[in-house]
Amino acid sequence: MAAFPHSFSSRLLTGWVGGCVWYLERRALLESPHKFMHLFRNVNKQWITFQHFNFLKRMYVTQVNRILNQQVKPKPKPVASPFLEKTSSDEAKAEIDEMRPLSPLSPSLSIKPDEKQLIELESASTIEGSIDVGKETKEEKQWKEMKVHLDDLPGILARLSKIKLTALVVSTTSAGFALAPGPFDWPCFLLTSLGTGLASCAANSINQFFEVPFDSNMNRTKNRPLVRGQISPLLAVSFATCCAVPGVILLTWGVNPLTGALGLFNIFLYTCCYTPLKRMSIANTWVGAVVGAIPPVMGWTAATGGLDAGGLLLGGILYSWQFPHFNALSWGLREDYSRGGYCMMSVTHPGLCRRVALRHCLALVGLCVAAPVLDVTTWAFPVVSLPINLYISYLGFRFYKDADRKSSRKLFFCSLWHLPLLLLLMLTCKQRPGEEGDKENAQS
Predict the structure, then answer these.
(1) Cβ distance 110 to 104 under 8 Å?
(2) Residue % of the chain over a pLDDT of 70
(3) SS3 assignment, position 377
(4) Is the Cβ–Cβ distance between 255 and 195 less than 8 Å?
(5) Would you place residue 369 in the very low, low, confident or very high pLDDT band (cuts 50, 70, 90)?
(6) Would you place residue 150 in the very low, low, confident or very high pLDDT band (cuts 50, 70, 90)?
(7) Which of 352, 424, 432, 356 is nearest to 388 (CA)?
(8) Rounded to an integer, what distance in angstroms lies between the CA atom of residue 144 and that of residue 134?
(9) Is there a contact between 360 and 320 (Cβ–Cβ < 8 Å)?
């Protein structure tokens, strides 16, 4: 009987196989060839099983060598959050010291001393390199407060105060001052414009201070100074205070107490009513329209010292103009407002958003007709303002019917030039004091 020189178990297994072969040869003379071939296949399967044992042994040795090679590589460091404090290098080294290579699994698979020293040197250099790379990546991802240079501060504060919106507020206040009856007082006009501008800057800055967590979720507002960390919240509040206090003082003592009270009330209405309502109810749009309607009334009260029908008419025109302007703007920003968590008509009540815009486009026609009735303008004003009012009403109707971005953009861009042109026409057709006296004499 032949024997393999590998081990005793293999020799024993081979002898058993040989006995089986001798037994099959003996039975081959008595049984059919088909049954003989069937039994011989079973024997071959047992022989293949022995070959599998050798294959598994080789796989085990290969896996052990692979584990030993992987022990040399350092453990990858988890990505640290930029808002967490940077760990010290001593702690990092202490963690790496705990990750020493494990002892070999089998004495027969031990590594030579020279190879061990080489592997230790390579692992040490790899660990040191990983520490340096970890330090660089953590320093890059570490949150750092942006340093503000004096040259950049005016631009940052201008964006904090929404300088374009402030310019629109000052222009409507100036229009109200110029449309008021009586002589034009330049010092009073300058004080009114400056005080109104400071009050608007304060209100816009406080508004941005309150809305930082929500502005960061919107593409339209994610680049604002407080969201990007260009200035600290303390600096923003300090700037708002430095604008609000002198602004209200100028309007109260430089102009008259009624104008100062309106300015203070507008700051409160914008920051404490309109801003929180944006996340609670669609009524914020109507409150915001009142905020935008007060500046021309302030200009009227600054020039006349009182509040009458002419000032309320100017406020009504600004009130109605804001609905087609803002509703068309918010229609294209519905996804942004929804992402920021704001409760806008365009998001929650899209049909009402379009209907309100159309109603107030038509209301502008009636308000322009009421201007000469209240002796604010001549009767030429309703005639010359009718084309632009009909055009914005047509665009409002298209926005109501189509309800798409194209119609909303057309209505929004039309509102940008409609208001300045309408105020300019009002100034051109203003009722002069002499004409008003001639009218009274003719009636008498």
Answers:
(1) yes
(2) 64
(3) strand
(4) yes
(5) very high
(6) confident
(7) 424
(8) 18
(9) yes
| CA angle, residues 249, 159, 412, in degrees to nearest 5 | 100
Q: Measured at the alpha carbon of residue 60, what is the angle toward residues 58 and 62, in degrees to the nearest 5?
A: 70
- Please name every residue paired with 205 in a beta bridge, in sequence order, or none if there are none: none
3-state secondary structure (DSSP) of residue 87 = coil
Going along 116-235, which residue ranges are E strands?
A: none
| DSSP code at position 274 | I
Q: What is the CA radius of gyration of the chain?
A: 42
Rounded Cα–Cα distance for residues 264 and 248 (Å): 6
What the block records as the tokens of 306 is 């009182």
Specify the amino acid at residue 121.
L
Element (H, E) at 329: helix 309-331
Whole-number Å distance between alpha carbons of 331 and 409: 9
Best CA proximity match to 296, nearest among 175, 381, 198 = 175
State the DSSP code for 106: -
The 10s digit of each residue's pLDDT in 72-95 is: 445 455 544 444 444 444 544 444
CA distance 384 to 386: 6
Structure tokens at 136: 């660089």
- The predicted model gives 24-47 an average pLDDT of 52
| Cα distance between residue 161 and residue 198, in whole Å | 9
Q: What is this structure's pTM?
A: 0.67
> Are the C-beta atoms of 119 and 72 separated by less than 8 Å?
yes
Contact (Cβ atoms closer than 8 angstroms) between residue 280 and residue 343: yes
Q: What is the pLDDT of residues 392-403, one digit of tens each?
A: 999 999 999 999
Q: 429: which 2 tokens?
A: 């057709």
For 289, the token pair is 């329209």
Whether the CA torsion 279, 282, 286, 289 is positive or negative: it is positive
Rounded Cα distance, 245 and 263, in Å: 11
Helix (H, G, I), strand (E, B) or coil at 430: strand
CA separation for the pair 188, 391 (Å, rounded) = 36
Number of alpha carbons in the 13 Å side-chain half-sphere of residue 109: 15
